[in-house]
Structure formats: structure tokens, C-alpha cells
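Final report, closing paragraph on structural work. Over the funding period we assembled a curated collection of sequence-structure pairs, and we close with a single example.
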Amino acid sequence: MTTATLGSLTWERAVDRPDLLADSTAAAIRAWAADDPQVAGAVLVAEIDPELADTAAMTEAYGVPLSASVNCVLVGGRRAGAEKVAAALVRATTRADVNNAVKRLLDVRKASFLPMDRATAESGMEYGGITPLGLPAGYRVLADAAVAADDAGSGGTVVIGSGLRRSKLSLPGALLVRAPGVEVVDGLALA
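Its predicted structure, as stored:
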């Protein structure tokens, strides 16, 4: 069994711990690993206190660099009666440019965050654990180019949700932006 450390957390291969993943996340990682053998050893999971799932609390409690955390927010908008939904992935030290970049990419009149109850119901994931891995097929996944950057504080590793509040995933940012369906976007995030 592969283990690693980041902050004070001990990480194990996610493919070996589906009990720490939302069902759709586990399925997405298995499918991705079947297509790319690097994934099984590179996508890791660590159990955390679910009360510490929010980025700031997790960073403080476990010593994970804030710059390593990547937030996944679900955004939607409409044009001509058609709704478009996307996940926006940005470093936790930034915020998604919903009003300009996301709106333009979705080609909608107004983009806004999905309400929490809708986001969790449609994704099958828990609030505070939503991840780009395992989202519904119709969702676009937009990743700010900085997600792939080799951050000095984390050696290129990023921390994202697992679909559950009680765990987090870690993997190289450069690998995350190569996940199936991910679109890399320059300027998706604002400082």
C-alpha cells in the first residue's frame, strides 16, 4: 500500500480506499486509472474530521499549505432557456471569476453559484467535499491554469475534495488538469 504525507495527514492510494470517496468519485477514479496507469499511484486520499472540511479549517488543523488547496465551485447560467453548468477549479488563494470568465465560457447572460441543496443533490457529493472527479456528465469542468503550476509550498501537489466531508484527495496539479473532461483556462481565477 502506497502512503505519503502532506501536512500532518497520511495519504493512501484512493483506489484502495473507496470507503473514503463518494460513489461517483470512486467510479471516476477507477475509470481514469484504467485509462492511465499513473493515476492509481498518484491520486491519494486522507481521512479528516468532517467538521474541518472547509479549506481554512483543514489548512489550519492539518498544516496543509493553503496554496496547495484547490476549490471546486459549481456555477450555472441560462441563455435562450437552456441551462449550462460548470465546475470551476481555482487555487484556494484565489477566487473564480464567475461574473466574467465563467459567464463568457458558458455563454450565458448571468452566471451564479448553484444553491447548496441543488449542488449536493445533482453531484451526489457532500457540501464541503465537492470534487471535479465524478461530476454529472453534462457539467463542464474548467480549471484555472494555475492549478497545474508547481507551487513551491506543495511540490506541485494539490488537495481537492473527495465527494465526502470526511476525506480529501491529493494529486499532482498537472495530473488533475489532464483528468477526463477538464478544460484548462487562463485567467479563470482572480487574486
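Residues 71 and 154 are 15 Å apart (CA to CA). The domain at 3-180 is CATH 3.90.960.10 (YbaK protein). We thank the funder for supporting this effort.
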